[in-house]
């Protein structure tokens, strides 16, 4: 029986998983990125390379995943935390420890989805509490319900992590130290092929049937011209921008019609710059803290706009009536989207045009979610993630800093987003109708396709077969036995043939056969273990 | 090649553009709802959210006229209704979708709703409308994205005592 970890390390890791969750939920910082969490846990348990390698692999598996509209995805963060901690106990060299870590991290990530659903459901209690507080006109209770909404989110991670590390690490240590060599090989191969899942999911979201040519360009640059990844990313950006600047702008289907707005007498506004700054910070730091299935970001929106409402509606009854108006379903992309909608909402509340404001909010939340999710989940995150993961897999902490930087970029973008919305107000509608949105998402998707063409073979380069066979050849009249490597035959046909076959196999299963992500994940797990154990891959 | 009916109060958003359009292979979106079609802001904004797919925002009567001119054998069309009532009106107007799915149905404040699933609220009237659709021979699934399990919504409504 191993010794496992003491209560203190368990406590530190539990606190980290709480903080990482909340930092992402609030200001969209990426403390909960698998690489960042892997680095932290690696540092705590004294095996940084292991934490980075495990985090890097999990990062790649989660490439195409995004919690669209509050869908639940495997919790690779908790997987990285628990997997790193457990595997570090084995004292094995990094590659083998990493295989053991994957064996822990994958089931943990899947199991945690259940607790994610529980956490998201429990917060429904908080929004009903806030409803009652609004009825009773109790400002303090209203704030409390919003801010405490983070508890189910954070605790649904922290509590299982604490007990898993504290009680589980002893028995698991014994298990891990005794994994037979064939199984370690299997887990290791599994780790090599699982990133194909992330790539496959991502490809299903990209317009590859329409713009496969961009993918081919990226592939050629990597596989035949050996251009480094950064070079491919820069070339992608340049070529895509040239392409779209040459392409004529398609006229928007419907000309922008002036939305009918009653001109209101401009009275001196009771809302000061300080109130706006206050509301903006509330929004940017806490929008999703009390996220729940029923009304999603509603409570966060209402709490954030309350400083504005308080100035616009000095009477207590009017104020709470306005607050109640904002307690309706709201959900959009929290970083690229919501700040702008929130800014416009603030402006329209200030101008006492609540009906226009409410309509704008409802109309814009869907489209902005579409744009924000495309730019963040399909372009920015995968590019950063692939660079970060390749650094992490080489044992460089740079990968973790890169992901942290991405989170801070998202957070930073929220501030100009807010002021844009505030200044434009209803003008946003005209701006959105110019066709700019389609253009932005097209540029983002094609650039992503180009880049993935190079990134996929690069990341999956270790998917190779060691199979050899001997054949009789006749050289100068004599029969000689010659060893032929199957891999070199593949390479002669098409470089990186297996990585491509694997990725497009996953893509085909997801897109054409309509398998679920989970089914493909299980298939790859079994395939990896079997092929690795029998030394076929 | 077919028509697919999706019921979602958020109309076009991330799950729809990223997951469903790709899943169905949709080449065109028709948002069919009287209230939405009457709102100039939504009429302008929604087509912009569709990631380049041609999108019409029309009232239910116009949607039926428009769909009659489209050949489902020729292209996959994603038809989005805002709620059960609208979807039923489409079916009664002669729409024959290949499948019917419900994405999000947020609760409407002031109605007597029950949360059937964490992301689907339904009133007794909604349940009746879903039941009527199911009686026309459709299985109605409550999936937010294609990776959710394809449950039977009408069965769930029954279990919640709405039918």
Report on this model:
The complex is a heterodimer of chains A (537) and B (163). Chain A contains 22 helices and 2 strands. With 537 residues, chain A is an all-alpha fold. Chain A has a domain at 7-197. In chain A, 54% of the residues are buried. Residues 252-264 of chain A have low confidence and may be disordered. In chain B, the strands form 2 sheets. Chain B has a 6-stranded parallel β-sheet with strand order 3-2-4-1-5-8. The longest helix of chain B has 12 residues, at 124-135. Chain B has helices at 14-24, 34-37, 40-48, 60-69, 84-92, 124-135, 153-159; strands at 3-7, 28-32, 55-58, 77-81, 99-102, 114-117, 120-122, 140-141. In chain B, helix 5 runs parallel beside helix 6. Chain B has a single domain, classed as Phosphotransferase system, sorbose subfamily IIB component (Fructose Permease, 3-Layer(aba) Sandwich). The interface between A and B is large, with 60 and 43 residues.
> By helix and strand content of chain B, what is the structural category?
alpha/beta
Order of H and E elements of chain B: EHEHHEHEHEEEHEH
What is the general shape of chain B?
A: globular
The share of residues in helices of chain B is 25-40%
Distance between the termini of chain B: 34 Å
Task: Give the quaternary arrangement of the chains.
Answer: heterodimer
Average pLDDT number of chain B: 90
Count all strands of chain A and give the number: 2
Number of distinct beta strands of chain B:
8
Supply Rg of chain B.
15 Å
Report how far apart the termini of chain A are: 33 Å
Contiguous helical run count of chain A: 22
Helix content of chain A: over 70%
Which CATH architecture of chain B would you pick?
3-Layer(aba) Sandwich
Overall geometric form of chain A: globular
With strands numbered from the N-terminus, the spatial order across the biggest sheet of chain B is 3-2-4-1-5-8
């Amino acid at each position: 029986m191993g010794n496992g970890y003491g209560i203190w390390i368990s406590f530190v890791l539990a606190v980290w998983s709480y903080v990482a969750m909340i930092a992402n939920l609030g200001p969209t910082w990426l403390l909960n990125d698998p690489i960042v969490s892997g680095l932290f846990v690696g540092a705590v348990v004294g095996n940084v390379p292991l934490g980075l390698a495990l985090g890097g692999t999990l990062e790649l598996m989660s490439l195409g995943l995004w919690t669209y509209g509050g869908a639940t995805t495997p919790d690779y963060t908790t997987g990285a935390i628990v997997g790193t901690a457990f595997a570090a106990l084995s004292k094995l060299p990094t590659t083998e420890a990493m295989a053991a870590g994957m064996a822990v991290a994958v089931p943990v990530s899947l199991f945690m989805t259940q607790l994610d659903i529980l956490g998201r459901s429990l917060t429904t209690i908080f929004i009903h509490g806030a409803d009652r507080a609004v009825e009773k006109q109790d400002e303090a209770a209203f704030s409390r319900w919003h801010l405490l909404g983070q508890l189910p989110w954070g605790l649904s991670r922290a509590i299982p992590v604490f007990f898993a590390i504290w009680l589980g690490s002893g028995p698991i240590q014994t298990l891990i130290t005794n994994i037979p060599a064939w199984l370690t090989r299997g887990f290791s191969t599994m780790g090599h092929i699982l990133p194909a899942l992330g790539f496959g999911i991502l490809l299903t979201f990209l317009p590859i049937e329409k713009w496969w040519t961009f993918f081919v360009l990226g592939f050629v640059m990597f596989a035949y011209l050996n251009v480094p990844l950064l070079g491919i990313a820069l070339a992608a950006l340049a070529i895509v921008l040239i392409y779209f600047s040459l392409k004529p702008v398609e006229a928007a289907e419907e000309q922008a019609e002036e939305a009918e707005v009653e001109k209101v007498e401009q009275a001196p506004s009771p809302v000061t710059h300080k109130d706006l700054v206050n509301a903006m910070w509330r929004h940017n730091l806490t929008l999703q803290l009390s996220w729940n299935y029923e009304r999603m970001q509603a409570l966060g929106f209402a709490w954030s706009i309350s400083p504005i409402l308080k100035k616009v509606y000095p009477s207590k009854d009017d104020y709470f009536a306005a607050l109640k108006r904002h307690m309706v379903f709201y959900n959009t992309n929290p970083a690229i989207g919501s700040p702008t909608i929130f800014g416009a909402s603030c402006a329209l509340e200030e101008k006492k045009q609540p009906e226009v404001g409410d309509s704008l909010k409802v109309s814009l939340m869907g489209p902005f979610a579409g744009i924000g999710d495309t730019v963040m989940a399909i372009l920015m995150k995968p590019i950063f993630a692939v660079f970060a993961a390749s650094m992490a897999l080489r044992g460089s902490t740079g990968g973790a800093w890169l992901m942290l930087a991405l989170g801070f970029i998202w957070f930073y973008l929220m501030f100009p987003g807010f002021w844009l919305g505030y200044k434009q107000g209803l003008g946003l509608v005209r701006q959105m109708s110019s066709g700019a949105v389609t253009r932005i998402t097209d540029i983002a998707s094609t650039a992503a396709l180009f880049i993935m063409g190079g990134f996929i073979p690069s990341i999956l380069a270790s998917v190779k077969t060691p199979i050899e066979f001997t054949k009789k050849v006749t050289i100068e009249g004599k029969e000689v036995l010659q060893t032929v490597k199957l891999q070199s035959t593949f390479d002669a046909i098409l470089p990186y043939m297996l990585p491509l076959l694997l990725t497009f196999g996953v893509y085909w299963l997801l897109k054409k056969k309509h398998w679920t992500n989970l089914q493909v994940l299980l298939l790859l797990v079994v395939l990896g273990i079997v092929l690795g154990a029998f030394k076929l891959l | 090649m077919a028509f697919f009916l999706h019921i979602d109060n958020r109309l076009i958003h991330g799950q729809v553009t990223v997951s469903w359009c790709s899943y169905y292979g949709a080449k065109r979106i028709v948002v069919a709802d009287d209230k939405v079609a009457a709102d100039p802001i939504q009429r302008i904004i929604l087509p912009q959210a569709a990631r380049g797919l041609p999108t019409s925002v029309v009232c239910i009567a116009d949607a039926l006229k428009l769909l009659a001119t489209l050949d489902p054998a020729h292209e996959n069309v994603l038809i989005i209704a805002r709620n059960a009532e609208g979807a039923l009106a489409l079916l009664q107007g002669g729409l024959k979708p290949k499948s019917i799915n419900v994405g999000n149905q947020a609760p409407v404040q002031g109605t007597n709703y029950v949360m059937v699933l964490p992301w689907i609220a339904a009133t007794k009237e909604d349940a009746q409308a879903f039941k009527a659709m199911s009686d026309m021979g459709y299985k109605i699934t409550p999936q937010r994205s294609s990776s959710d399990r394809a449950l039977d919504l009408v069965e769930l409504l029954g279990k919640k005592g709405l039918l």
